[in-house]
Amino acid sequence: MTRAPTMPLLSAADPLPYHILPAREESPFVMISDHAGQAVPSSLRDMGVPPQAWERHIAYDIGIKEVGRHLQNALGCLLIEQVYSRLVIDCNRAAGHPTSIPPVSDGTAIAGNQNLSQQERYAREEEILHAYHDEIERHLAQRDKGEFLFVSLHSFTPAMEGGEPRPWEIGLLHDHDPHSARLMRTLLEAEGGLCVGDNQPYVLNSHNEYSVPYHAGRRQLPALEIEIRQDLISDDAGQRAWAERLARLLPLLWAQRKERA
Ligand SMILES: [Zn+2]
Q: Is the per-residue pLDDT at 134 higher than 60?
């Protein structure tokens, strides 16, 4: 990957772009959480975004950091979280994608993303987007020999601005590995009363998204992207309940995959 020289974006006062929760043991899961974070580089100040907007889904995936941490604790697997807000740069988009550094998000104009210079874009790409994905690559390279499921965690808003309510409690997104999604869907539906989206509310492909195609699709690794509706995981009880459910079902999914392989 060619990298243009940049003006530094992050300073010593800013956190690293990724947060690692290491595996406790050999685990068949590697998890990532692209939209866990709400941090903003201090040099960008508030990006001209009103305080209440930082608490909305446009800034991060509400509830998913907590679900991911409970799940990581239960499964003992590696979890890599993105630390910066998706309004700074969306780490589930390729560099240069129209919504990578969104000038508008769900009807809210992001003043700090208007009329950026090429240097300012490169700085966000290099220091946040590529730094995060390089870290994921480093961990995957260490794991290349063993088999594992690459799990990407997200949450979705119950309705976009002016849009229809979304009926799914959970969505399973897939592209190169429909098999894992199919098995997980059957397991979730056996729980009773769950509306499970199949490539809903989003379709996973290499144009719409980045992390799963880039890391797992390219290697043909078993992979699953999980999207949980945000109203279900906006409090501690919901976060724990969904983590408990996934911690129970993911090992069953993996066992079934191995059996039928
Ligand atoms: Zn997300």
A: yes
